[in-house]
Amino acid sequence: xxxxxxxxxxxxxxxxxxxxxxxxxxxxxxxxxxxxxxxxxxxxxxxxxxxxxxxxxxxxxxxxxxxxxxxxxxxxxxxxxxxxxxxxxxxxxxxxxxxxxxxxxxxxxxxxxxxxxxxxxxxxxxxxxxxxxxxxxxxxxxxxxxxxxxxxxxxxxxxxxxxxxxxxxxxxxxxxxxxxxxxxxxxxxxxxxxxxxxxxxxxxxxxxxxxxxxxxxxxxxxxxxxxxxxxxxxxxxxxxxxxxxxxxxxxxxxxxxxxxxxxxxxxxxxxxxxxxxxxxxxxxxxxxxxxxxxxxxxxxxxxxxxxxxxxxxxxxxxxxxxxxxxxxxxxxxxxxxxxxxxxxxxxxxxxxxxxxxxxxxxxxxxxxxxxxxxxxxxxxxxxxxxxxxxxxxxxxxxxxxxxxxxxxxxxxxxxxxxxxxxxxxxxxxxxxxxxxxxxxxxxx
Length: 444
Hints:
alpha+beta, Outer membrane efflux proteins (OEP), 2 domains, 9 helices, disordered N terminus
């Protein structure tokens, strides 16, 4: 009677665990989001890309000779003045003339032109500065796009990796369920003690808890990918089942491409050119500043108390102004010295960026090569572990191995699949980052 009650308890627990199955990674009736589709969505929606595009458009709009100060400025003016005054005039013959509440009016209007025709070549340096800032913004935009694309690829394949890990865990859980069934049957037959059934149930619960935790991580990664794509974080989608790795990357090619195409190096070179232009701008104040001005003015005035009660005038005015810095408290020397130090700092920044880049490439390429080796070893190891688990399960069914041995076979299988899938993801992440830092990441 006790055996029957215990058997009913085990069957009930098994039914409960089986009924609360872990959620599948593939969402029913939801289309698969391909990597290409994810990249297309990001290029349209990603906030960082949008902001960078606006900054690039602003920099491009600034590249004009007018903004650099090469063109004249023309302004129209209009002035009207009115006053009501009481005037008392004493003439030379001592007669007094008094005018009460006289209405005085004046109107002036015209057009004036001002043009700096020489400023020590500062306007040409400024124009070059705007062009370099345009290149700087374009390089930053390309870098933002490359970084975003790389982030999407790595996040997407992280989901693929997690999906594979979940499937492996689900396979182990299926083995644990069979183990419970076998141990229960053998217990009912009096072949094993209750401890075997308990151990099988504990193993199943442990595996189920691990699977639930992995699925929660999988969901969080989905939310993160939706965030990068700038869409509703709860948008459901399915991902691919495989990770395709480029196994033909060569270290020499990567270093050569990075020297000419790496965004960080390109930005550092542009910053150096900007510092050199800044020195030209500072030196321009040593030269004279020359400007011309001209204009045409119309003037009408009425003054009842004046000798000429009504006066109209019009005509052309023109002139030239010139100035030169003679002494400014040695500030000119100070500004030039600081500008030269900025050039020196920019050269140091380029060398630092180049050294950091070479170190980063070395680390990533080492991870890439070790990952490829792990893939080659791990693929065969997964198959061996799977066969070993199947044989161990059959031996457990007929009672020739212990529960600890079948559990060890499960762990070996999970370890083998984990190493293999992580190696695939490691290689893909290293490959993607290497292509991103060389400016060659494929966004098609």
